[in-house]
Design brief:
The complex is a heterodimer. Chain A is an all-alpha fold. Chain A contains 28 helices and two strands. Chain A has a two-stranded antiparallel sheet. The model of chain A has no long low-confidence stretch (mean pLDDT 92). By secondary structure, chain B is mostly helical. Chain B has one domain. Chain B is 84% helix and 0% strand. The longest helix of chain B is centred in the N-terminal third of the chain and has 47 residues. Classes of the chains: A mainly alpha, B mainly alpha.
């Protein structure tokens, strides 16, 4: 294509993007079509990828296609393998796409569709994609070192220690929140619980197929497993309508919490690989398929968004979670805009597969742009619901009341019309007893997804099947995150304790496995139990805490990246990572301050503890426990913010030393080696 | 009348030729674009689902696929896999 033609095409993309964003931002008081969001997102990512990531690749990072990557230099056929860039892209995307980009945007939809959409687009293009890209490249240049190792090498031992604490914190809080989402989605839902329970024998059957009948044929067994899961969804309907069976699968939140804690411990401590590996594969298969189906469904249906651009809850009085638009929208939506967790993947398996440095742009920046698109789809799924329905599902009983009529009246008084009869009809349509107070984001997303699917395939008759398919999909891959995360956490604790007493670090010594598994499960199990017992639904306290810890990890990653850029002598380009870092610091510091000290008991942990302490039931053991939980959450938040401050000071001191010439800038890159494939790849 | 019938027959014959030519070209295009797309997708899925890793394991150890080989592969890759984080 000639240069003027290319310029014309990109001008057209920019114009389409600008028009879409203007439409999203300016329209008030009328419903808009979801395609405006899709076009705005696609154009933003395309422009960001074509121009911003190219600038970073050429000027900031100076990608060198002639430099051999660790996959080439250290190729061993196991961890280090030169892999086709599209294959690495798919692999990386499958690893970074978790429940976060689906749940966060659904919760943040209480502010309206506009704040979440704008943050997802700008956050991804200028922060999230940049973080994933630079960390991936810096890890590639360091033989695939992890973020913790890079922080230790480039910032100092304290940087490494803080990165380690950040990773452990985020894993523990993430697992607690994930488990809570599953509990809230499955409580009093025999259909959903039956389907998820059936994935255990299905996984065992897949395991037998994989190991005995067709060794290693994972795709075949995943397709078989998927068909059986569809059968289990259909069977769930029978189970829910058969009282003698349904009673065993109608469980309360505490019972489900206990079962999930036992499951987490078993997954980490027992040799149940036969069960876990097939489930892991099945979950990935379902995840990729469902995301693809949702994208097709949105494009085919082009639904209308019923949620307004902005709701009255931008003032901080939201029922889903309390807190002002700034900073809480920006910690609630992490994974779709910027997620520190991605830096673990970008400095984990992916850098060991990259064939050429230049491919880090497509894999790092491109895969995050796709993940961000998933978050936009979640915004659409939440906002296609009538606002009254959205708030009825997501508001805890502690805010709107337990009785359906009272809840519907409260929500209608906010200006979002809904009746108990409407909700009963909807619950009946999706095969549930009730949809009131189903906090956590997953049920609202499932209803939105079922709405989109049922308008595309099968009509209202399949609404219940689609709803439970969505619930199964979310619960299945959240449980996979749960068991994988518990094992990763257990290994990290074992590595650390091994420095204290060697046997504790031995991953094959059973007492150590049991003790460390119990430690990790107890940590996230505590947060889960706290969430289950919280009258405000748990998500109100725990999701912001998760967002803060996730952004803390992103802060560590951006500190590492800025330090390396400065040490490379490219300080004039440091704003590329420094500006997102400054934004994250502003967001996390503000959010932490509000979560600890805000006088509103729905926001501030300490204010809530004070309210309970002065209440009529202050001396009751249950109240004492709630007070302790509040103080613990405040302490955890305080420690996280202290860590952010410490790593910032440590990094800034390093930058000043280097820039003032008081310290020689030494980057710990692997030595340059020419690629053997330069000639054959016509570089 | 006979002449008109002849020209109509010619018209449909030409239309059929054009259509079959078009279909053949379409099939070629699908083959040219679709085949690499399909094989790329298959390779991506094989990598995500560790089928490629298992194939590399068999090559590295010069083994044939069997329940024993797969069990050995799982044992070898268990530690690596267990340390692989999953994103939120």
């Amino acid at each position: 294509m000639s240069k003027p033609a290319r310029a014309f095409v990109w001008l057209a993309v920019a114009a389409a993007g600008a028009l879409s964003i203007a439409t999203i931002a300016i329209r008030r008081g009328e419903e808009i079509n979801a395609m405006w969001l899709v076009v705005a997102a696609v154009c933003s990512y395309a422009l960001g990828y074509r121009f911003y990531s190219k600038f970073i690749a050429a000027r900031v990072l100076a990608l060198d296609a002639l430099r051999a990557t660790p996959a080439e230099r250290l190729e061993n056929g196991r961890d280090f393998v030169r892999t086709n860039k599209w294959v690495v892209f798919g692999h990386h995307f499958a690893a970074i796409a978790g429940p976060g980009p689906l749940v966060g945007p659904v919760l943040a939809a209480q502010f309206g569709y506009l704040p979440g959409t704008l943050w997802i687009l700008t956050g991804a293009v200028f922060a999230g994609c940049v973080q994933d890209f630079v960390i991936l490249l810096f890890s590639v240049r360091r033989d695939g070192k992890s973020l913790t190792e890079m922080a230790k090498d480039e910032i100092g031992r304290l940087g490494g220690f803080i990165a380690y604490i950040a990773v452990i914190s985020i894993i523990v809080i993430l697992l607690g929140v994930c488990a809570l989402i599953v509990v809230n989605a499955l409580k009093a839902s025999p259909w959903g619980t039956f389907t998820i329970a059936m994935t255990i024998p299905i996984a065992l059957l897949m395991g037998v197929y994989l190991r005995r009948i067709r060794p290693g044929k994972v795709l075949e067994s995943s397709i078989l497993g998927f068909l059986l899961v569809l059968l289990a969804i259909w069977g769930g309907q029978w189970a829910s309508q058969t009282p003698s069976v349904g009673q065993y699968f109608t469980l309360t939140a505490p019972t489900l919490a206990i079962l999930i804690i036992i499951y987490g411990f078993a997954a980490s401590a027992l040799p149940v690989w036969l069960l876990l590996a097939p489930r892991d594969y099945l979950s990935t298969f379902v995840k990729l398929g469902t995301i693809g189906m949702l994208a097709l469904g949105i494009i085919a249906l082009r639904p209308t968004l019923h949620m307004p651009a902005l709701t009255r809850f931008i003032d901080g009085s939201g029922p889903v979670f309390a807190g002002n638009l700034f900073p809480f929208a920006f910690v609630t939506i992490a994974c779709g805009a910027i997620s520190g967790f991605h830096s673990l993947i970008a400095s984990g398996t992916t850098p060991k597969l990259i064939s050429r440095e230049t491919e880090t742009r497509m894999v790092g920046y491109g895969a995050m742009a796709c993940e961000s698109m998933v978050a936009i789809m979640a915004v659409i799924a939440a906002c296609v619901l009538q606002p009254g329905t959205y708030f009825a599902i997501n508001s805890p009983a502690g805010i709107v009341g337990q009785a359906p009529e009272a809840a519907a009246a409260t929500i209608s008084n906010w200006g979002f019309g809904v009746t108990a009869a409407d909700m009963q009809t909807l619950a009946h349509a999706v095969g549930e007893q009730t949809l009131f107070n189903r906090t956590g984001g997953a049920p609202a997303f499932a209803v939105g997804m079922a709405h989109i699917f049922s308008h595309s395939i099968g009509g209202q008759a399949l609404m219940a099947i689609w709803y439970h398919f969505a619930i199964m999909f979310e619960a299945l891959f959240i449980l996979t995150v749960l068991d994988a995360g518990t094992r990763v956490g257990r290994f990290m604790v074992q590595d650390a304790l091994g420095h204290v007493w060697k046997p504790l670090g031995r991953t094959s010594w059973y007492p150590s496995i049991l003790a460390n598994s119990a430690l990790i499960v107890a940590a996230w199990g505590y947060f889960l139990w706290q969430g289950v017992k919280d009258p405000l639904g748990g998500i109100n306290s725990l999701w912001p805490l998760f967002g803060i810890s996730n952004q803390l990890l992103a802060t560590v990653a951006l500190c590492v990246a800025t330090t390396i850029i400065i040490k490379l002598g490219r300080a004039r380009f440091a704003p590329v990572t420094l500006l997102p870092l400054a934004w994250l610091v502003a967001v996390t510091f503000s959010a932490s301050y509000y979560k600890i000290f805000d006088p509103n008991p729905r926001i501030g942990f300490l204010a809530h503890a004070r309210l309970l302490a002065t209440g009529a039931t202050a001396s009751a053991p249950a109240t004492a426990r709630l007070i302790f939980n509040d103080r613990l959450d405040a302490a955890v938040t305080g420690i996280l913010i202290l860590l952010i401050a410490m790593i910032l000071i440590e990094s800034a001191a390093e930058w000043v030393r280097v820039l003032a010439g008081r310290k020689q800038a030494v980057v710990r890159e692997s030595p340059f080696v020419n690629t053997r494939f330069a000639a054959e790849e016509q570089i | 009348m006979i002449a008109r019938q002849g020209s109509l027959r010619d018209f449909f014959a030409r239309l059929a030729d054009t259509l079959s030519d078009l279909l053949a070209r379409l099939a070629d295009t699908v083959r040219v674009i679709g085949a690499p797309l399909f094989s790329g997708l298959r390779e991506t899925l094989r990598e995500i689902f560790d089928e490629s890793a298992y194939a590399r394991f068999l090559t590295r150890h010069q083994l044939e696929t069997s329940p024993q080989s797969y069990a050995e592969f799982l044992r070898e890759s268990e530690t690596t896999r267990s340390r692989r984080p999953r994103c939120c």
